[in-house]
């Protein structure tokens, strides 16, 4: 069984909250941090733990065992707080840090800091980000309707050797596999549920954009 991810989300305004709610559907362990108690109370039911903390309060941060997290998501709008948090999470050794940029200047600063995962909320919605945290690498997608996209997904290495039935992409992520493209092979249309994922496979899926 795959290890359950420990994820920290800093900031739960609309964008951050949408990420937390989607990760809740994926049964992750999520710690939510925000300095606003009203937002903490609103999101508490969707998180493993939700606490009111000002990220600039080092005494409170030291209680959180930051080195236990696999992923940190920083969605706060304040550039100074965002940079402080990113530095703290890097120092703690969190392997994957995802930071929302609130402006072009903010993005340039994050790039100078060497942050690998920088997102803009107007370009990448919270649900899609949650899927990327869960290692669903969407290479490209095509608009099909208001409800569905057709997406090209790179198979994660954790999927290799597992059947489509075992992956449960439909029930977990609202995705129906309509084709598989293996390395140096023609695309296989409507693969059987017994099909085993191979290294380098790309899946063509119909994705329900409203799936939660």
How would you describe the overall organization of this protein?
By secondary structure, the chain is an alpha/beta fold. The longest helix is centred in the middle third of the chain and has 13 residues, at 79-91. It is built from eight helices and eleven strands. It is elongated and about 55 Å long. Strand 2 (29-34), helix 2 and strand 3 (49-52) form a beta-alpha-beta unit. It folds into two domains: 6-133, 3-Layer(aba) Sandwich (Rossmann fold); 137-208, Regulator of K+ conductance, C-terminal domain (Alpha-Beta Plaits, 2-Layer Sandwich). Helix 1 (14-25) packs across helix 6. Strands 3-2-1-4-5-6 form a six-stranded parallel sheet, with helices on both faces. Strands 7-8-11-9-10 form a five-stranded antiparallel sheet.
Blueprint (SSEs and pairs):
Layout: E1 6-10, H1 14-25, E2 29-34, H2 37-43, E3 49-52, H3 58-61, E4 71-74, H4 79-91, E5 96-100, H5 104-113, E6 117-119, H6 126-133, E7 137-143, E8 148-154, H7 164-167, H8 169-173, E9 175-181, E10 188-189, E11 202-208
The fraction of residues in strands falls at 25-35%
Q: Give the name of the CATH architecture of the largest domain.
A: 3-Layer(aba) Sandwich
Largest sheet: 6 strands, parallel
Say what the CATH topology of the largest domain is: Rossmann fold
**Count of folded domains:** 2
Number of helices: 8
**Large-scale geometry:** elongated
CATH class of the largest domain: Alpha Beta
What would you call the quaternary organization? single chain
Instruction: Name the poorly predicted regions.
Output: none
- Could you estimate the helical fraction of the residues in percent? 25-40%
Give the strand order of the largest sheet, numbering strands 1, 2, ... along the chain: 3-2-1-4-5-6
CATH 4th-level superfamily of the largest domain = NAD(P)-binding Rossmann-like Domain
Gyration radius (Cα, Å) is 18 Å
Q: How many β-strands, per DSSP?
A: 11
Structural class: alpha/beta
Arithmetic mean of pLDDT: 83
User: Helix-strand pattern, N to C?
Assistant: EHEHEHEHEHEHEEHHEEE
End-to-end Cα distance, whole Å, is: 23 Å
């Amino acid at each position: 069984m795959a290890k359950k991810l420990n994820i920290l989300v800093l900031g739960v305004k609309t964008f951050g909250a949408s990420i937390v709610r989607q990760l809740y559907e994926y049964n992750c362990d999520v710690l939510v941090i925000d300095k606003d108690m009203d937002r903490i109370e609103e999101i508490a039911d969707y998180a493993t733990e939700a606490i009111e903390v000002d990220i600039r309060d080092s005494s409170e941060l030291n209680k959180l065992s930051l080195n236990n997290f696999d992923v940190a998501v920083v969605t706060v709008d304040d550039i100074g707080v965002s940079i402080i948090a990113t530095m703290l999470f890097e120092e703690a050794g969190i392997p994957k840090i995802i930071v929302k940029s609130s402006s072009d200047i903010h993005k340039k600063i994050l790039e100078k800091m060497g942050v690998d995962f920088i997102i803009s909320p107007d370009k990448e919605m919270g649900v899609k980000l949650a899927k990327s945290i869960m290692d669903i690498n969407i290479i490209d997608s095509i608009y099909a309707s208001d409800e569905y996209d057709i997406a090209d997904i790179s198979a994660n290495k954790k999927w290799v050797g597992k059947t489509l039935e075992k992956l449960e992409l439909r029930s977990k992520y609202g995705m129906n596999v309509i084709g598989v493209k293996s390395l140096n092979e023609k695309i296989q249309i409507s693969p059987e549920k017994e099909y085993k994922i191979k290294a380098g496979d790309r899946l063509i899926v119909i994705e329900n954009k409203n799936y939660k």
